[in-house]
Amino acid sequence: MNDLCADIGYKSINHVGEELCGDHVDVVEENENSTVIVLADGLGSGVKASILSTLTSKIISTMMAAGLPIEECVSTIAQTLPVCSVRGVAYSTFTIIHLLNNEIAEIIQYDNPQVILIRDYGIYDYPKTEMNIGGKRIYKSTICLQENDVFIAMSDGCPHAGMGRKYNFGWKREDIADYMQALVAGGYTAKNLSTMLVDECDRLYCGKPGDDTTACVVKIRKREPMNILFGPPSNRDDATRMMSLFFSKVGKHIICGGTTSSIAAKYLGKKVEVSLNFERSDVPPIAYIEGVDLVTEGVITMNKVIQYAKDYLGENELYEQWNFKKDGASLISRLLFEEATDINFYVGRAVNPAHQNPDLPINFNIKMNLVEELSACLKKMGKRIKVSYF
């Protein structure tokens, strides 16, 4: 078993005038050693296409994760989904990326644009084996993974972008590969890479997509642990044990909260130096402790991080607000969303007297809920989360 992991991100935009997207992405983790990613493109657009793509991706991902062969998956889809009365086809097109032990990727493709693989920052032409299942031509590839490999799967809304406007025949796959090759060199996360690709497609459609458009990016990277200390322990006698466990962990260390940072500084025999630089009015300034990677205020900053996390999982529209700024919430967001793969929370249950003022919208329960909410968001990003309470 190696120390590689998969960073997975995707984004979709709907066909103009449609409430629902006809594409669907499903990610199923059978266990820590097996992940199945399915991008399905339903026939047409709107409700019908959405139902077809959702059923297709759910059926395939569930069956693949259970270890069933692709032949059985495709056969099941053909028998389960209704046949299109116009085209006579029973199911949507799909792309499957099956990651095994973060060592091997099995790619199975039916009628979607071919998956782009960028390896060593160059476009890599991987081998494909043609299969015939139920009269359908399906391509299968088996690839040994390397660090920094980037797989880009997409629906046909991507190569159709710009058709009849900037390009006579749409945005060619080769041109998309060149465009993404330059972005991959920038070190962006899978979510941001998929967002930038779909946003460029939207621009080529002049904001009126002529087709449902989806991009799913899988980036292979090394595991990166991160540790967060949030709040003092309920029992003061546990402070030394809490600090000892926190600082003994490998990876970067983030401390949130004024009282918490004071306890940590005392444990380290260092001083807390508070910055007087207010990067933004709604987030308190950061502080510095020698030997600690980041020190921030607690509840207000964490609440802002959760706001960014929810947006990151959705439309990712606030990306520019946190990716370049140096306030506490932006710095934490970059560390957690972009760098970390394994995150350890050390949460103190002490009640802060300042939070018991009925005029303040902060109480103990809200503080605990923040940790649970952020943990849930980070898990959806594919992070491994461990929470320890003191």
Features:
Phosphatase 2c, domain 1, 5-stranded antiparallel sheet, 28% strand, 2 domains, alpha+beta, elongated
Can you offer a commentary on this structure?
There is one protein chain. The chain has helices at residues 46-65, 70-80, 173-184, 190-204, 239-248, 258-268, 299-313, 319-323, 328-339, 364-380, and strands at 4-13, 23-31, 34-41, 93-100, 104-110, 116-119, 122-124, 129-133, 136-144, 150-154, 213-222, 225-230, 252-256, 273-274, 287-288, 294-296, 342-347, 384-389. It is α+β, with helices and mostly antiparallel strands and 390 residues long. The chain folds into two domains: 4-222, 4-Layer Sandwich (Phosphatase 2c, domain 1); 225-389, no CATH class. The chain has a six-stranded antiparallel sheet with strand order 2-3-4-5-9-8. The protein is elongated.
Task: Summarize this structure briefly.
This protein folds into two domains: 4-222, PPM-type phosphatase domain (Phosphatase 2c, domain 1, 4-Layer Sandwich), CATH 3.60.40; 225-389, no CATH class. The protein contains ten helices and 18 strands.
